[in-house]
Automatic annotation (TrEMBL):
Keywords per UniProt: ATP-binding, Cell membrane, Membrane, Nucleotide-binding, Translocase, Transport
Name the UniProt record assigns to this protein: ABC transporter ATP-binding protein
Single Gene Ontology MF annotation: ATP binding
InterPro entries the record matches: AAA+_ATPase, ABC_transporter-like_ATP-bd, ABC_transporter-like_CS, ABC_transporter_ATP-bind, P-loop_NTPase
Membrane listed as a keyword: yes
Species: Streptomyces salyersiae
SUPFAM superfamilies, sorted: P-loop containing nucleoside triphosphate hydrolases
Amino acid sequence: MATHTGRLTDARPAIRTVGLVRRFGDRDVLKKLDLTVAQGEFTALLGRSGSGKSTLLRAVARLDHTVEGSGELSVPDRVSLSFQDSRLLPWLRVLDNVVLGLRGPGARERGLTALAEVGLEGRDRSWPHELSGGEQQRAALARALVRDPELLLADEPFGALDALTRLKMHGLLRELYERHRPAVLLVTHDVDEAVELADRVLVLEDGLISVDLRIDLPSPRSRREPRFQEYRDTLLAALGVAQPRLSH
Ligand SMILES: Nc1ncnc2c1ncn2[C@@H]1O[C@H](COP(=O)(O)OP(=O)(O)OP(=O)(O)O)[C@@H](O)[C@H]1O
């Protein structure tokens, strides 16, 4: 797996949409949406249920050929995807899942390196069902990263995990991001997850980006820090969730 080298010299954004429309029946779920995500930028996407987050992610992933729509979209060649369900193929061992479709003599070695990076050293010959939910997500991250993506698209990747495993996965994802620097678009319902991980948080509302907030905090971030809480409150308010303020 390559670390980030000369990639940032090219100023092309990782995602660019202009006037993106996606329509189901007579409802425009995305309404001429403009979005630019820079190379190497970690962006989280929040929004109420049904606001169109997955629709946007699937459009960017070019997984929506059957959906009616219009607008311009440009994304890089190397895009990796990660979902709530790890989508490992049950009939392939973990390493074979990670390197599936990869070519070249070094593929298996790269797969083993990626597994070690996500903390799954020695599990290459395991079957997916022998891994815990968190380990399956680690394997899915290895599968995403071994392709050296310029853009990582993640739709609620930790949504099915217990709270403790989720926190550990946050640390791992941020660490891998800092080492490899793909652009990331992370769809999540979890405001804390967004503020903890991303450098920019978007809120999707009524088919458009209603909030575009830069998170100016050093990493790793503490949820107890007052500025973390300010960002959280701003985003919760944007999502229409009233947040009682505790007095000190
Ligand atoms: N294939 C489809 N056919 C018809 N309607 C769809 C389809 N996919 C999504 N929609 C509708 O588009 C809207 C946006 O769905 P989408 O899954 O993008 O929302 P979301 O913000 O990701 O929601 P959630 O947070 O609940 O996962 C919803 O009203 C949904 O019912």
